[in-house]
Design brief:
heterodimer; A: 131 residues; alpha/beta; Barwin-like endoglucanases; six-stranded mixed beta barrel; 6 strands; globular; B: alpha/beta; Rossmann fold; Dimethylsulfoxide Reductase, domain 2; 3 domains; five-stranded parallel sheet; 17 helices; binds iron/sulfur cluster
């Protein structure tokens, strides 16, 4: 199943803040920031269990993260990924000339992942390092 | 009974811009480890505990040799780092927001000697706010003033329950003040956000704005404030009646504050959002007292802006390549420079761009030699060529930090750093000395 025409927002969450202080290279950080939260009704359309990995795709990249249902909804049409390595595979680096990238409000689509694994921060960022 | 722990009181928490100054830390006398943290929020508490030795804490300088990090002496690590910086054409010095002011000042000195680019994390968060304040000025106040007087509080594109957990209880919401004797009951809280955030859930009024349409909403509020009738049913997804009600609330308050966050600075209109928010606040002063405050993220990003400004004239995104400071965010800001692949070496101080920059920028950062001054393993330091282990400011060394309202507070040392860690300031001083030597100065 998939969802189109979503808007991706990113930002701080307290568990992401705690996890980054607890160790950015730990599994705790994946559980805190390697997730995508959905509006409850949107999530029903995906027809999968909460926690199922989903692939989020924008014009700037794609990433596999765990799905969850938002506690800060309803927000139909909006998905949220905590700031960090996973969100940053998807955000718009352009700043429209002011220097600050556009981390929020990016068109996105989501597919339930049939295969693949949610990478930890080092595996994910490690892919950006050319050998 | 023999005392087993020593307690340090009135400690400033070095995590977020709220800079709570009432923490109490218990340190075990035998092991010199943090065993208890009182008054901190979850994140602040965790920061103290994670300063204890662990498998992700660096204790010795490291250099990458044949693809692996190997332990080396400080002399060797500093020599290698200085080599990298001196041989670079366009080195970038980035970070500085999670360290104290004296280290920041040393960063400026090093950037000047190297003719480097100097930038702090405002570049990816509140840079647009600084631009807007430079454009149109701003009416500001201290958080103490807000605690004592403010009766209307707006959180716009900011979610303090998650990002500044004790802000509400210390300054802006639940706290009792001199003129707000009944605390929460004496204040009216408004949250403007596309999501019904946890902050919105405890507010008196929630305004659900469409993502990236804050600019239009603020302009509509300004128009209504001037008495214009808008000939539409809604603006940015907000019904006109709701905007009217908000305008009445704003006009009738005694002392209002707009706290704004990344919801304004990181969406498409960036500094124009903040420009217009500042203008709204200025115009509200025709009716009542109104001010605004950016919800700064890193505990001392405000300090980085202040220190860079008093040294160079500019708050962030500074280029020294011509031997004197030039300022042009969008040209000299880190992400834009990396996207153009202009940077050929980087020194990262107290920051993790590997996690926090867009992937395409990180890719270019990793192409070139990288030095990290860092206490913990991060997606930046793990891929660095030189890792310089550091004592955490505010836990393992003293210093000064600026709260989000630019009030400077003293950071305390509660324990010693593990292993061979030095402070940011000491490391930068040693680098400056070595770089000068190599440049024949
Ligand atoms: S609110 Fe911010 S400054 Fe205060 S304890 Fe929490 S993280 Fe530290």
């Amino acid at each position: 199943m998939s969802l189109d025409n979503l808007i991706l927002l990113t930002g701080r969450t307290i568990s992401q803040g705690v996890a980054l202080e607890g160790g950015k290279v730990t599994r705790e950080n994946v559980r805190a920031a390697g997730i995508c939260t959905f509006d409850a009704d949107d999530f029903k359309k995906l027809d999968c269990l909460a926690g199922t990995p989903v692939k989020v795709i924008t014009d700037y990249g794609e990433v596999l993260v765990y799905s969850t249902i938002s506690e800060e909804g309803p927000h139909p049409g909006i998905i949220f990924i905590p700031m960090g390595p996973w969100a940053n595979q998807l955000v718009n680096p352009s700043s429209q000339g002011c220097g600050t990238p556009t981390y929020k409000g990016i068109k996105a689509k989501v597919e339930v992942a049939k295969s693949g694994k949610v990478l930890n921060a080092l595996e994910l960022i490690g892919k950006l390092k050319e050998a | 009974m023999v005392e087993k722990v020593r307690t340090v009181e009135d400690v400033c928490c070095p995590f977020c811009g709220t800079l709570c100054d009432d923490l109490e830390i218990d340190v075990d006398l035998k092991t010199d480890q943090v065993v208890e943290v009182r008054n901190g929020c979850q994140i602040g508490t965790k920061k103290y505990f994670s300063s204890n030795p662990s498998d992700h804490r660096y204790t010795k300088p490291l250099i990458r040799k044949n693809g692996e990090h190997v332990e080396v002496s400080w002399d060797e690590a500093i020599d290698k780092a200085a080599d990298i910086l001196v041989n670079a054409q366009r080195p970038l010095l980035y970070g500085f927001s999670s360290t104290e002011c004296e280290a920041q000042s040393k960063g400026v000195e090093l950037a000047e000697i190297l003719n480097a680019i100097l930038d702090n994390t405002a570049s990816v968060c509140h840079g647009p706010s600084l631009l807007a304040i430079q454009d149109v000025g701003a009416s500001l106040a201290t958080l103490g003033e807000i605690k004592n007087r403010a009766d209307t509080i707006i959180f716009w594109g900011s979610n303090p329950v998650h990002a500044h957990p004790r802000h509400l209880s210390r300054y802006s919401d639940f706290i009792r003040g001199y003129f707000r004797t009944d605390g929460r009951n004496d204040r009216y809280i408004v949250v403007v956000d596309p999501r019904y955030t946890h902050t919105a859930q405890i507010a008196d009024k929630y305004i659900k704005v469409n993502p990236s349409e804050d600019y239009e909403l603020i302009q509509a509020i300004r128009a209504m404030l001037r008495g214009s009738d808008l000939d539409v049913k809604e603006v940015s997804g907000v019904p006109i009646e709701s905007i009217k009600e908000l305008v009445d609330i704003l006009k009738s308050s005694n002392f209002g504050v707009v706290f704004f966050g990344m919801g304004l600075t990181q969406t498409l209109a960036h500094h124009r959002n903040v420009d217009t928010a500042i203008r709204l606040v200025t115009e509200l002063n025709d009716y009542t007292k109104f001010i605004l405050i950016p919800m700064r993220g890193h505990y001392n990003v405000t300090g980085a802006n202040v220190v860079f400004t008093w040294n160079t004239g500019y708050a962030y995104s500074i280029d020294f390549s011509r031997g004197y400071p030039r300022y042009n965010p969008g040209e000299f800001s880190s992400v834009e420079l990396l996207m153009r692949d202009e940077v050929d070496a980087a020194l990262i101080v107290a920051s993790d761009p590997g996690s926090n920059f867009p992937a395409a920028a990180v890719k270019n950062l990793f192409k070139h030699p990288l030095i990290a001054i860092e206490p913990h393993k991060t997606p930046t330091s793990v891929f660095a060529d030189v890792v310089l282990p550091v004592a955490i400011a505010g836990i393992e060394c003293e210093g000064t930090a600026y709260r989000m309202d630019t009030v400077p507070l003293r950071l305390r040392k509660v324990k010693d750093a593990p292993g061979e860690c030095l402070s940011d300031k000491e490391i930068l001083e040693r680098l400056i000395e070595k770089v000068r030597e190599k440049m024949g100065e």
